[in-house]
Amino acid sequence: MKRIAITGASGLVGSNVAYKAKQKLSVLGLGFSFPPRIENCTSGILDITDQNACKNCLMDFRADFVVHSAAYASLGGCEKSPDLAYEVNVKGTENVAKVCHSLRAKMIYISTDWVFDGKKELSERYTENDLPSPLNCYGKTKREGEIATQNNTDDWVILRVANVYGHNFAIPQQWSLWEERSIQRNSWAVKVISLLRKGKAIKQPTQISQSPTLASDIAEVILEVCSRNLQGIYHVAGRENTNRYEFVKEIARVFDLEEDLVLLGTPEDLLLSFAVDHSIVPQLINELPRNASLDVSKIEKTLDRKMTGYEEGLKIMKAQLRGREKRE
């Protein structure tokens, strides 16, 4: 049986990959401070900034594929601690890539739509041929991670995703889905649902447009990438783009929650919903890509599949959460 190692498997993308991959592959799910607990998967801890630990862990497992989804993804945290962001997102990626090269393992690097500056017209989308020009520290270090991947191993795939939503399958079964520690480890969309369930209003802007991506869609594409031995850069996102205000409105509709609690807001409100420190909000407002919508025609044509739009995707997410609730 082929072997797949997943860094960041305690996070949203990584946990979905592990959950899907366990049916066909031997899975090693690696977390940093939180070991992923996914049935029929081997669990471990890995600090990707430790070169020797990376080498020992992945070499011992003899991975055929390595999905590198671990990242320092805190938008505000990256701005406040750029050295840490660089250490994790660039040097950590370099460490993983070097081991992949030694193993002759395919490396799948999870990147972001925010490697682009978002200055395209709303009617346009970014293709794989567009030149990245990130605005914020997170986007810049993720772009450098792309380059580190390309420079340090031969067999690589870069997948750019956007505004990922869904359920984190690495949350321990003994935790209730709607207790605070579960909510905090789940997707931004789950945090939104939790607030609306409590009757709390949410302000979101119309000025920030993206292509919301269902995490389980990303996982399915990754397994296809592995089985078809693809290489190169692909945009793996939802086939519909929308702004954050309309996205949250749709969350309320799909989950039968009060739409009137979703209010028109500003980019500042978006940053605050990311728990960005108030002190750096003014700086980051100018570093948010306004239209980072991704063109997914390349991956759709390559795999002969349609990426899921956010309206359909939220219904799939609802079924995932209901399935989890039934097991509690």
What would CATH call the architecture of one domain?
A: 3-Layer(aba) Sandwich
The number of helical runs is 13
- Uncertain stretches: none
Shape by Cα distribution: globular
- Find the structural class using helix and strand composition: alpha/beta
Return the CATH class of one domain: Alpha Beta
The fold-level CATH name of one domain is Rossmann fold
Secondary-structure element series: EHEEHEHHEHEEHHEEEHEEHEHHHH
Distance between the termini: 32 Å
- In round numbers, the mean pLDDT is 94
- CATH superfamily caption of one domain: NAD(P)-binding Rossmann-like Domain
Q: Give the C-alpha Rg.
A: 19 Å
Q: Tell me how many strands there are.
A: 13
> Proportion of β residues?
15-25%
Helix content: 40-55%
Q: What is the topology, as strand order, of the major beta sheet?
A: 3-2-1-4-5-6-11
- Most strands sheet: 7 strands, parallel
